[in-house]
Design a protein that fits this description.
alpha/beta; 7-stranded parallel β-sheet; 9 helices; 48% helix
Length: 247
C-alpha cells in the first residue's frame, strides 16, 4: 500500500488520532503536511517522529474554520510542492453540554470547526485533485454521529453532517477519479478520553463488545486502506472502528 510521490494534508495532525494518521501515511511514503492551529510544539514533535523514522513532513498552520486562511495556505502548499493528493479532515473540537444549557457560541464553534472546516478544506483541495484527476478525501466522523450522545448535540450534529458531505462529494467527484469516504471512531485512547474518570471508563467498556478502548493507530489503519490503491474502488462509504459499540 505505497504512497510514494503523494502529498497528504492531515488537519488537526499534531496529536492523538491526527498524529497517528500522519505517522502512518508518512511510513507509506507520502510527504505529510501536519496542520495545527496553536500547538506548534506538538506539531513539531509529530514532524520529528516522522523525520526520525525516515519520512517526510512539513508543518502547515491555519484554522480550518477560517476560509481565507485555509484557501491561502493550501494554495501556497500546492504551488510550492506541486500537488495535494490526499486530504484527511480530522480537525475537531468539543464544547459539551446539555441542549437546554448550551450556548449558541458553543454550537457555532463546534459546527464551524468540525463540519464547516471539512467543507472549506475539501473545496480548496478538490480543485487541485480534479486537475490531476486523482485524489483521496477521508473525513473523520464519530460513532456519536450515528448513535447520538447526551450532552453532545453540537458534536453529534457536526459528525452526522459529515456523512452527508461524504456521500455527496463522493458522487460529485467520482468522475474525476477522486474517492471520498469517512472513518467513524468509537471511544479511542486520546487526550479527550484520558481525563474520564475510572468509573466512566469502566461503564464505557460494558458498552463495547471487544471490551477495550481503541487506539489512534486503529483509526490510522482504516485511513491508510482508504487512501491506498487497495481502497481505490471504495467511495461514499463509512468504516466504523468502534469495537462493536455501534453495528
Amino acid at each position: 500500500m505505497g504512497l510514494e510521490g503523494k502529498n497528504a494534508l492531515v488537519t488537526g495532525g499534531s496529536r492523538g488520532i491526527g498524529r497517528a494518521i500522519c505517522v502512518r501515511l508518512a511510513s507509506m511514503g507520502a510527504q505529510v503536511f501536519i496542520n495545527y492551529v496553536s500547538n506548534s510544539a506538538a506539531a513539531e514533535e509529530t514532524q520529528q517522529m516522522i523525520v526520525d523514522a525516515g519520512g517526510k513532513a512539513e508543518l502547515i498552520g491555519f484554522d480550518v474554520a477560517d476560509s481565507e486562511a485555509c484557501q491561502t495556505e493550501i494554495k501556497k502548499m500546492i504551488k510550492e510542492f506541486g500537488s495535494l493528493d490526499i486530504l484527511v479532515n480530522n480537525a475537531g473540537i468539543t464544547r459539551d453540554g446539555l441542549l437546554a444549557r448550551m450556548s449558541e457560541d458553543s454550537w457555532d464553534a463546534v459546527l464551524d470547526t468540525n463540519l464547516k472546516g471539512s467543507f472549506i478544506c475539501s473545496k480548496a483541495a478538490a480543485r487541485a485533485m480534479m486537475k490531476k484527476k486523482w485524489g483521496r478525501i477521508v473525513n473523520i466522523s464519530s460513532v456519536v454521529g450515528f448513535s447520538g450522545n447526551a450532552g453532545q448535540v453540537n458534536y453529534a450534529a457536526a459528525k452526522a453532517g459529515m456523512q452527508g458531505i461524504t456521500k455527496s462529494m463522493a458522487r460529485e467527484f467520482a468522475s474525476r477519479n477522486i474517492t471520498v469516504n469517512s472513518v467513524a471512531p468509537g471511544y479511542i485512547k486520546t487526550d479527550m478520553t484520558k481525563d474520564l474518570s475510572d468509573a466512566i471508563q469502566e461503564k464505557l467498556l460494558t458498552e463495547i463488545p471487544l471490551a477495550s478502548l481503541g487506539t489512534p493507530e486503529d483509526i490510522a489503519g482504516a485511513v491508510a486502506y482508504l487512501v491506498s490503491d487497495d481502497g481505490a474502488y471504495v467511495t461514499g462509504q463509512t468504516i466504523h472502528v468502534n469495537g462493536g459499540m455501534y453495528m
